[in-house]
Amino acid sequence: MAEKWTTAKIPDQRGRVAVVTGANTGLGYETAKALAERGASVVLAVRNVEKGEQAAARMTGDVTVQALDLASLDSVRAAAAALRSRLDRIDLLINNAGVMYTPRQTTRDGFEAQFGTNHLGHFALTGLLLDLMLPVSGSRVVTVSSTGHRIRAAIHFDDLQWERSYSRVAAYGQSKLANLMFTYELQRRLATFGTTVAVAAHPGVSSTELLRNLPPAIRLPIGWLTPLITQSPAMGALPTLRAATDPAVLGGQYYGPGGRYEIMGHPRLVTSSPQSYEAAIQQRLWAVSEDLTGVRFPTVPSKQDPRSSPVSRGS
C-alpha cells in the first residue's frame, strides 16, 4: 500500500513565491499556511483585505496580502498590476477561491456569478500573471475544481450566463467543469515552453463556508450527517498542496482524495469526467473566455502544435 501523502512530504519551499486566491479562510487558508510554514513567500489574494490581514497574522513566515475580487475584471487587472510591480517571479499560482450554489446573481461585468468568479476571474488572472511564471523552471498553475464538475455539468455555450433559466447546481457544475477544461487546454499551450505546468485538484467534501449556500432541500436533510461525510479544510487542502509541490506531478494531472467516491482521504491521482477531456470543447471555451475577459495569454512558440502534448488521465 502506498504511503499516505501529508504536509510532511512538502519539499522545502524557501526561495519560492506562491500566490493563493481566497486564502483568508477554508481551503485557501490551509494551503497558504502550509506553504508558508515550508518557507515559501506567500501572497494571500483576497476580496476582504482586513480578513486577509487577520489570516496572515495567524500564519508563520513571509505572508503578505493583495486585494483581489475575482467578480470584477477591473479588480483582477488591478491586482495583477500590483503583483507585477512587487514580484519579479511567481513559482505557484493557486486558483483556489470560489463561490458555490449561489442564488442567481451577476458579477460586476454581468457574468453569472459562479462562472464569472470561479472560471473567468481565474482565467483572466492567470493570463495576466503568466509571464512572471514562464521563466521560472518548475512553476505551476494549480486550479481547484470539484466533484461538482460531474453533477448536471456541461458548458452551455448557448446560454453561458444562465439568462434564460437558472439552476444553482448546474451553474456550479459548469464553472467547475470549466476549471478542468481550462487546466487541460492551458497545459497543452504550456507544453512547448517547458518550464510551467498546469495541474488541477479537488478537495472532496470539506467543511468550509462554501456549504452555506447549499439549497435547503439538500442542506437540511444532510445537516446531521455533515460531520460524517465531510473532512476538515486541512485535509481538503492536501490535494491542492500535492498538486503544487510533489516533485512527481506532471502537467495536466488531477488530484483528489483517495477514499471511496473521492469524498475524503489522503490525496492521489484521480480522473475527471469523460467530457472534461474533450479537446474541441476546451478550445472553444478558451476562445470564448478570451473574448469575454479581453485577456490574451502569452503566445506559444510556433515550432509545435500546442495541442500535440497529451493530457494525463489518472488511474
Automatic annotation (TrEMBL):
Ranges that cross the membrane: none
Superkingdom of this protein's organism: Bacteria
GO molecular function, one term: oxidoreductase activity
Record's keyword terms, sorted: Oxidoreductase
InterPro entries: NAD(P)-bd_dom_sf, SDR_fam
Pfam families: adh_short (PF00106)
Family listed: Belongs to the short-chain dehydrogenases/reductases (SDR) family.
Classification via NCBIfam families: PRK06197.1 (NF004846)
Protein's name in the database: SDR family NAD(P)-dependent oxidoreductase
